[in-house]
Amino acid sequence: MSESQPPLVRVRGVDKVYHRGSEDIHVLLNLDLDVHPGEFLALMGPSGSGKSTLLNLIGGLDRPSQGTIEIGGERIDEISSRQLAAWRARHVGFVFQFYNLMPVMNAERNVELPLLLTHLNRGERRQHVETALHVVGLADRSRHHPRQLSGGEQQRVGIARAIVTDPTLLLCDEPTGDLDRKSGDEILGLLQALNREQGKTIIMVTHDPHAAQRASRIVYLEKGQLVSERPS
Amino acid sequence: MNGLINWFVQVTSLTAFNLRTIPERRGSALSSVIGIAGVVLVLVGVLSVASGFRRAMVSSGSPSEAIVLRSGSDSEMTSGLGRDEVRVIEDAPGIARDASGPLASAELFVIINLPKRSTGTDANVSLRGISPAAYAVRGNVRIVAGRRFTPGRNEVIVGAAAAGQFAGLDLGQDIRIGQNDWHVVGIFTANGDVSESEIWTDASVLQPAYHRGDTFQSVYVRLASPGDFKAFKDSLTTNPQLNVTPVRLSDFYAEHSTVVTEFIQRIGVVIALLMALGALFGALNTMYSAVAARTREIATLRALGFGSGPVIVSVLVESLALALVGGVVGGVAAYLAFNGHKTSTINWQTFSQVAFSFAVTPGLLARAIVFAMTIGLVGGLFPALRAARTPIATALREV
Ligand SMILES: Nc1ncnc2c1ncn2[C@@H]1O[C@H](COP(=O)(O)OP(=O)(O)OP(=O)(O)O)[C@@H](O)[C@H]1O
Ligand SMILES: [Mg+2]
After folding, report:
1. B292: CA distance to ligand 2 center in Å?
2. How confident is the model at residue B1 (pLDDT cuts 50, 70, 90)?
């Protein structure tokens, strides 16, 4: 968490413009952001301010209109789509607001999905899946399908899927947005533990100031820029 | 190498994933399967008419049989041969012989009208006058009821297909045609070939009944072996006394079925193409909705690092799998519904009624399945490209 280490995420002068018909929507304007290894960053801001857009750029799901994005020393704004897909598989774990689990697969198979893109064999994959489900406290629900699980449990499966490849960076877009307070707190506790005990670098988008308090730093996005930055 | 293995792993896991979600959208999957099955059913049904007709015609001709017509005639209808010519032909080299002489049958035929059993309306039937050697020349004629006609009498034997198609041709009945009465004394089969659609009598009885004098229209011969055809043909065509054309029977029939089979095939293809267009839109619709229903899931997989290529391939495989099921269902249904179904039609090249069975052949089924798969491929391609091209960030926003 020390400021002396080089940042893991380095966003410089990023613009993001969407074209809707003849209209240009400038979502991000000359935005800079550094995230250091081991940080747990909360990204806040009003609806439509571009939080998801920024998170998607950092996760290599989208490309900036302008500017550079460097993750772990690699310029991800410059590489091909194919390389970017492989890069995501290796370096990023995504946690979504609506979990985005495959309804036809049980928890185990959902968590195994990202491992299909690695060189691990079946036995090794099973080992990793078991560990990840154990970490999120769902070892006993591994054969359950998403519809047999509560929202909080589904999000745990989502987190297990995000960490199973041991990624550099965990990106969570409103991970508690669809959960009640109690389940949300459990998820936040889990993310906090992953950050503190396993040193995972986490960027979490949230609307909820209460959720943001769990992070080690909060940044606010407004009118395309990070307007204030204050330690939590 | 590693990349290739990785690519296959992606394709197989995505495909398995797609196929496993089919039960969740069985409604639309079923409708595209049924649509494609319907196209295949019609295609196979129509084409089986053509292949059945062709089979009836071609199987009639053995390579060791030949027919001799007057030069310039391409059918028995327009041919004519005198008794002297017939004698010379019978003595030609290459003809098989038995105890009673060369296996050559001088024949003539007239076209008569009889009411069809099914509709009661009249249709053409060939009444053929044959020589005693005709049974040995054809080699496949079996009397299945009654007996052979007695030479010199107004007796006929009726091909099984003709007996089935036309009223009044049952054993023991009399047929009145013009001033003549013909007594049905036997029913015969001929291994399914065109003879079964004919009525046979003694040539020497038919000649005076139709004022044909002592002329014939053709001579059917059995060759000693298929290889003897050339010697047989050469001896006839180089003989200055003769003005005739010998044709191998298999070639003769194949040629005489082309107009009809091609016509039926063309109609079949046109109908099938029109239906295929409908099925194609059905398949497109199915795959679009299948892909649309999984927009977020596909986007999630791509976010996790699955590539666009594997996404495209897996959607295509799913579409092909549905099309294959449709093709097989349609093919089996066509086989059960049509294969062996008996019917008859007029052969415009000979103006006689030919009875035949719809033939759903393995080749036809293979073509139908290829056709179904083509529909599946086209139907899956656009949805697949769309699934792979939609930006992930955009697709993830759709709930
Ligand atoms: N693919 C896109 N095409 C066009 N406009 C888009 C696209 N993605 C986002 N936008 C627009 O960009 C702006 C920012 O969207 P974004 O989803 O990043 O906001 P957000 O801060 O995550 O909002 P929320 O809190 O509601 O999730 C919005 O006005 C949105 O309509
Ligand atoms: Mg958002």
Report:
1. 21
2. very low
